[in-house]
Amino acid sequence: MRHRIPLAFLAALSLAPPTLAQETDDVPAIPASKPEQMADLSLDTLYDRLAVANERDADRLSDEIVDRWSKSGSDSLDLLLLRGRTAMVAQEYDRAVDHFSRLIAFDPGFAEGWNARATAHFALEEYGYALADLYNALQRQPRHFGALSGLAIIMESLDNEDGALDAYRAALAIHPHLEGAKDGVERLAEKVAGQPI
Q1: Fewest Cβ atoms nearer than 10 Å: which of 40, 60, 81, 92?
Q2: Residue 65, CA atoms < 13 Å, CB-side half-sphere
Q3: 56-62: long-range contacts, CB 8 A cutoff, minimum separation 24
Q4: How many domains does the chain have?
Q5: 154 touches 22 (CB < 8 A)
Q6: According to the model, what pLDDT value does residue 190 have?
Q7: Does any domain span residue 62?
Q8: Is residue 62 scored above 50 in pLDDT?
Q9: Do residues 174 and 155 share a domain?
Q10: Are 70 and 78 in contact (CB under 8 A)?
Q11: How many CB atoms lie within 10 A of CB 4?
Q12: The domain containing residue 93 runs over which residues?
């Protein structure tokens, strides 16, 4: 039986265009009117800024990070990713798996291909396949907060509250404003703390 995918899981596929930057004590904010300046920042710098950003700037930073995750370096592979995402929006999950599988076959090192296919497998309630794909995504991109959030949702679906809580906390350590992850921690922390050892 297929079901609607939780919004937090779909955040991993963020189809929103990237916008812009952030501000910290030691690094000045990048003006919203200058998104090209964010393109000059390294991915490591974006992650560092995301960890300390306010909510508004965190959205901009995470959009830029997701946009970078989504670029394979090949127009053909990016097209396969787009086709798979389009199939996901149309709830054609088997077709999405096919597109993402072709993408992975061509470039198994591209973390976003694995993450995207995990989302399609989750929609098909193929949790084992989804977990395997998330493992592969995280091997290639350990700070993939979308994959960590997806992992938490699957673990929670499988009644592994300890594992889900760990994954939500790991996602929040990277992206403190990640939609759904804060709620997940609040929902599970008390339940897990009250469990017998």
Answers
A1: 40
A2: 28
A3: 57/21, 57/22, 57/23, 57/29, 58/22, 58/175, 58/176, 58/177, 59/19, 59/177, 60/18, 60/19, 60/20, 60/21, 60/22, 60/32, 61/21, 61/22, 62/14, 62/145, 62/175, 62/177, 62/178
A4: 3
A5: no
A6: 83
A7: yes
A8: yes
A9: yes
A10: yes
A11: 8
A12: 73-128
Cα(116)–Cα(122) distance, integer angstroms? 10
Reported as a single tens digit per residue, the pLDDT across 91-142 is 999 999 999 999 999 999 999 999 999 999 999 999 999 999 999 999 999 9
Whether residue 99 lies inside any domain: the answer is yes
pLDDT of residue 80: 96
Considering the domain boundaries, does residue 137 fall inside one? no
Residues with Cβ within 8 Å of residue 148, at least 6 apart in sequence:
138, 167, 168, 170, 171, 174
Encode pLDDT of 4-33 as tens digits.
444 444 444 443 333 223 333 443 344 443
Tell me how crowded residue 168 is: count the other CB atoms within 10 A of its CB. Answer: 29
Q: Tell the burial category of 89 from Cβ atoms under 10 Å away from its Cβ (0-12, 13-18, 19+).
A: exposed
Residues 82 and 97 in one domain: yes
C-beta separation of 152 from 185 below 8 A = no
Same domain, 89 and 108: yes
The model's pTM is: 0.79
* Non-local CB neighbours of 71 within 8 Å, separated by 6+ positions: 78
Confirm whether 173 is domain-assigned.
Answer: yes
Other beta carbons within 10 Å of 49: 24
Both structure tokens of 78: 């990016």
